[in-house]
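Team,

Forwarding the record for the chain on the shared tracking sheet. I've put the sequence and predicted structure together so nobody has to dig through attachments.
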Amino acid sequence: MVARRVTGVPLEQILGWAEFYGLRIVVEPGVFVPRRRTELLVDEALALHPETVVDICCGSGAVGAALARSIDGLNLHAADIDADAVRCARRNIEPSHVHLGDLYEPLPEELRGRVDVIVANAPYVPTDEIGSMPSEARDHEPRSALDGGADGLHVQRRVAVGAPLWLRDGGHLLIETSVGQADRTSRIIEQAGFATRIVSSDELDATVVVGVVLPTENTPTTGNSDSGKRVESG
């Protein structure tokens, strides 16, 4: 185990689990290791008291597992494009509700228009910056879980554009991002038909953009002239 750690293998992959939101999340070799900062995504989703949640780009299923543990009877579905991640997530949450495929494509059709909250920790590292990441991530986590395209926001755009088809009226989209990308992430979500607010936590060094589906006339329900955007700090 020490020899593997010296070569840069993440400790969580060596041990086979990571602590996340008070849970032991199974983490298999080659699977993205859940970060503590992503607990902010869980906090913000819990505050919305959802009954049906979709975890897109679910990785090990850590976010979904934390939500399911906290909400009795939660109707949770998760999806990831990486087969190793899906296999791992099926060890952490209800296996039949973890789907292999590209973003929303593998989700059951009956979820369309009925989801309360979509949570997404989509990759947001710009392609040119992956080479400067720690070897734990660069060499031992799937590229698909890290690479967000030229500006880091390619997958976030696809998540935002597809979300309104699956959310109910008044449903929410929550996307983890970096503090430096938050304004751009917010604009992407707004362009997809949402009013947004940016939530940050200094303690977790985390940032989440929360979007709520706008009425069909696409006019914000607040008097804020900046597309309903609000910035909070934790």
